[in-house]
């Protein structure tokens, strides 16, 4: 199969979907790999390292889409890529369709096969291709939050861990999934006073067992959130409903009860955000302030640490990408049922229910294309 890797063109997105080591694995199995010039530079991989791994460097994004049978990306295609995508082409990347109607409509029109990293779901409900980036984003959320709590950057002027004789910062984490768990570890490690909220009692029992003593668990509901926000310094939103829009747990009216200089970090912003006042920002202009409350809502946080992120992401995606190249998407989805849940759009049909419902589009069950033989 001809596997092609474009250079990411989203603002400040420095990750790349395939490392030279990954390219070598494809070549070893007899596939052809095409990488756009400078695609790996932001992550620290030169064109020469791809060439020595057996990949061919192509000069433009047009030549990449023209050549590839499978397109490997990190982020969803942006406007200028829409018309380059061909019918029956397999796109394997993060899509987050539920928060982007123009993208959804464009992919329906393209008649391509869109397989989304974020909805590949194992029988135990784990999301193997979302986990590595969630781990990065969860850890970064605390780094960024700690940074923006500094006065010159617009925060309250409070040190996350405090020092002897002063109280540490209070951190509230909404959602006890991968992002929330990693954020809690980081915030606890820096010495903050952490509360992590979730709606699942089994999950909270687990967190209560594994977390250090400065992390408390609490049932997530509006009453508890309203009680805590007046005394909280940093709030991290990490609620995920796979493939669907995140619910608003922090509403506009709650901001008036927060201390001036409180910092909100919404990691769920690429799925619509769980903080109502959150609008996607970029690494160039990461923050804005509403009612004295600082919002950090960068939609591709892991893009700021591309070397770590690219390695973490490709560790997870490569086995699936090799499987798709070896056996084609139909057979691969039969061999690995979790890939079937990754399918969002096939040849113009929306086959992922949450996406169809979000935009009132006709829904075609994926079994129409893939039989359970």
Automatic annotation (TrEMBL):
Its EC number is 1.4.1.1. SMART domains: AlaDh_PNT_C, AlaDh_PNT_N. It catalyses: L-alanine + NAD(+) + H2O = pyruvate + NH4(+) + NADH + H(+). The keyword NAD applies. PROSITE patterns: ALADH_PNT_2. The keyword RNA-binding does not apply. Residues 4-137 form the Alanine dehydrogenase/pyridine nucleotide transhydrogenase N-terminal domain. Keywords: NAD, Oxidoreductase. Pfam families: AlaDh_PNT_C (PF01262), AlaDh_PNT_N (PF05222). Gene3D superfamilies: NAD(P)-binding Rossmann-like Domain. Residues 149-297 form the Alanine dehydrogenase/pyridine nucleotide transhydrogenase NAD(H)-binding domain. It is an enzyme of class 1 (oxidoreductase). GO terms for molecular function: alanine dehydrogenase activity. Belongs to the AlaDH/PNT family. This is Alanine dehydrogenase. The lineage of its organism: Bacteria, Pseudomonadati, Bacteroidota, Cytophagia, Cytophagales. The gene is ald.
């Amino acid at each position: 199969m001809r596997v092609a890797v474009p250079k990411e063109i989203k603002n400040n997105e420095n990750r790349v979907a395939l490392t030279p080591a990954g390219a070598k694995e494809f070549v070893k199995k007899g596939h052809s790999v095409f990488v756009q010039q400078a695609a790996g530079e932001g992550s620290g991989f030169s064109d020469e390292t791809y060439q020595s791994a057996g990949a061919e460097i192509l000069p433009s994004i047009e030549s990449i889409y023209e050549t590839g049978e499978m397109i490997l990306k990190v982020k969803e295609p942006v406007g200028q890529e829409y018309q380059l995508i061909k019918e029956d082409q397999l796109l394997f990347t993060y899509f987050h369709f539920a928060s982007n109607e123009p993208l959804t409509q464009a992919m329906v029109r393209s008649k391509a096969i869109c397989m989304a990293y974020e909805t590949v779901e194992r029988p135990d409900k784990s999301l193997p291709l979302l986990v590595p980036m969630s781990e990065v984003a969860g850890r970064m959320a605390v780094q960024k939050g700690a940074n923006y709590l500094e006065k010159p950057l617009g925060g309250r002027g409070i040190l996350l861990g405090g020092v002897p004789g002063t109280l540490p910062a209070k951190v509230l984490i909404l959602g006890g999934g991968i992002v929330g768990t990693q954020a809690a570890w980081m915030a606890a490690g820096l010495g903050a006073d952490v509360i992590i909220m979730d709606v699942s009692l089994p999950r909270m029992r687990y967190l209560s067992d594994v977390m250090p003593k400065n992390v408390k668990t609490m049932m997530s509901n509006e009453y508890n959130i309203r009680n805590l926000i007046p005394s909280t310094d940093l709030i991290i939103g990490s609620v995920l409903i796979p493939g669907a829009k995140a619910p608003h747990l922090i509403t506009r009216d709650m901001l008036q009860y927060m201390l001036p200089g409180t910092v909100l970090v919404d990691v769920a912003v690429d799925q619509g955000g769980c903080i109502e006042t959150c609008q996607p920002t970029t690494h160039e202009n990461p923050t804005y302030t509403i009612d004295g409350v600082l919002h950090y809502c960068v939609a591709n946080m892991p893009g700021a640490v591309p070397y770590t992120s690219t390695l973490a992401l490709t560790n997870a995606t490569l086995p699936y990408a090799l499987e798709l190249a070896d056996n084609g998407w139909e057979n691969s989805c039969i061999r690995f049922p979790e890939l079937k849940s990754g399918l969002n759009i096939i040849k113009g049909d929306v086959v992922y229910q949450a996406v169809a419902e979000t935009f009132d589009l006709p829904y075609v069950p994926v079994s129409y294309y893939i039989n359970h033989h």
